[in-house]
Specification:
It is built from 17 helices and 17 strands. The chain is an alpha+beta fold and 463 residues long. The protein is globular. The chain starts with a helix and ends with a helix. 43% of the residues are buried. The model has no long low-confidence stretch (mean pLDDT 96).
Length: 463
């Protein structure tokens, strides 16, 4: 963890932003796979980690803004726990590590909250995303799970988002570590992607890199020769001549900061003429997006720049027609690029998505679009110094989507479906890099270069 001064400072800033009330933080519990003692690998709640830094299960905390009091709640472990876990610090010792002077038994949390409510204090809590959190809030505050999102504190959400959206130097250093490990994962995949290799073999080797570097995965690995399936976690195919292999994988450091990269390479060792044309259109769209990145420019403009370039490229291949910018703005581009350009990244690979994309990625007063394509844009707000995010345009040929739009004659003024039909078996590809905003503009994260150009891809595959 960072120094205790980091967590003390974060809590002080949060108290100042909130002004009054009692803030409730629920840490995560162990989660059973198939029976109680066989658990998934523990992962602490990111907001709890951000303000309290403790990577232990079974904890909760409050910040009483009105009385300037901070308390960590938890149960003391017993000799039965020590037999399996080794010697562990007490709750008081854990609390002291992060500068919290007071600790209490977890069983006293309910009475503590009720006493605060009876004194007229408002209890703020964040939208729960785990079933056990929903049950705890129901028990602690008497709010039914179905109603909890309605009663979650928007003021609390906004205060947390405004802090966590702006990464400090020590956070940037951690994210850089995660990105570098992620790059090593992708370099491993480039070397392995050959005919006859199973997707699961590459996934295993990629995940080994994260583990041997002292980290873990920031999200489930996507390693597939069916790149048009955006989240393909199956690992069931054997690579064959003519395939494009797509990897979307990232590492998480022991402090839980994330990296997130994507890459695409030709299994045959060389792209076909068709594949090369699509790959280069994609690279043009990527560069167009990056060229817009600077403080004050809405990320939506980067998305539109990428979409416009994709339309221009598809016009060159006869698949689209009309004004490229207009086709981008009305959503005709989404036949080939149905997802968003990128997302915030930090302690969560999609940073704070549990708190609501509307608050994390959109400015006050601007609602997310409901239009296909744009509705998947997680980040649209003007960029600010300290923002860390991904850039990941892609080009995909999804047969079901093509069939649907063709039958409905959607955007017929912009799409030449007879030409698109000829490409239905192409699959898909994308590349993804991570950027941060500085005073000067956008800075690519990481100290190790991930291949992007065709020449760089070929070189990486032959190492």
């Amino acid at each position: 963890m960072f120094s205790k001064e980091t967590y003390i400072s974060r809590r002080a800033e949060l108290k100042k932003a909130m002004g009054s009330g009692l803030l409730l933080f629920l840490g995560n519990d162990e989660s059973a796979m198939n029976y109680e003692d066989n658990t998934y690998m523990f992962r602490q709640d990111s907001t709890f980690s951000y303000y309290f830094g403790l990577d232990y299960s079974g904890l909760a905390a409050v910040i009483d803004v009105d009385n300037d009091e901070e308390i960590i709640f938890g149960n003391e472990l017993t000799i039965d726990d020590f037999v399996w876990m080794g010697t562990q610090p007490t709750v008081a010792e854990k609390s002291a590590i992060v500068g919290v002077a007071k600790s209490m038994a977890l069983s006293s949390l309910e009475s503590y909250l009720h006493a605060a409510i009876n004194k007229g204090q408002k209890v703020h809590f964040l939208p729960p995303y785990r079933p056990e959190h929903k049950l705890k809030i129901a028990e602690l505050l008497g709010i039914a799970p179905a109603a909890q999102k309605m009663y979650a504190s928007v003021e609390f959400v906004k205060a947390v988002v405004n802090m966590r959206n702006h990464k400090t130097d020590e956070e940037i250093a951690e994210i850089t570590k995660a990105v570098d490990i992620s790059t090593r994962m992708h370099l491993t995949a480039y070397r392995m992607a050959k005919p006859g290799v199973h997707e699961c073999e590459i996934a295993a080797a990629v995940e080994q890199v994260a583990c041997e570097c002292g980290g873990r995965l920031s999200f489930p690995t996507i390693a597939t020769s069916h790149g048009h399936v955006l989240h393909n976690h199956g690992f069931v195919h054997t690579l064959k001549e003519g395939d494009i292999f797509l990897l979307d994988a990232g590492a998480e450091t022991p402090l839980h900061y994330s990296g997130d990269l994507s890459s695409a390479c030709p299994v045959s060792g060389k792209f076909t003429e068709q594949q090369e044309m699509i790959y280069n259109i994609h690279l043009d769209s990527f560069q167009a997006a990056v060229d817009t990145l600077k403080p004050g420019v809405p990320f939506k403009e980067a998305h539109l720049a990428a979409a416009t370039k994709i339309v221009e490229g598809m016009k060159g291949l006869g698949m689209m027609k009309g004004d490229a910018r207009e086709a981008a703005e009305i959503g005709a581009y989404a036949l080939f690029f149905p997802c968003g350009l990128g997302h915030m990244m930090g302690l969560d690979v999609h940073d704070m998505e549990n708190l609501g994309e509307q608050y994390v990625g959109y400015p006050e007063g601007v609602k997310k679009s409901t239009q296909f394509g744009f509705k998947s844009l997680r980040l649209a707000r003007p960029l600010e110094k300290g923002f860390v995010f991904t850039v990941e345009p892609g080009i995909y040929f999804m047969p079901e989507l093509i069939d649907k739009w063709h039958a409905e004659k959607q955007f017929a003024d912009f799409i030449n479906y007879d030409e698109v039909e000829k490409w239905k078996g192409f699959s898909g590809l994308r590349n993804e890099l991570d950027y941060m905003i500085t005073d000067k503009g956008a800075e690519l994260m990481g100290t190790i270069k991930k291949p992007m150009t065709i020449a760089e891809v070929y070189e990486a595959m032959n190492k």
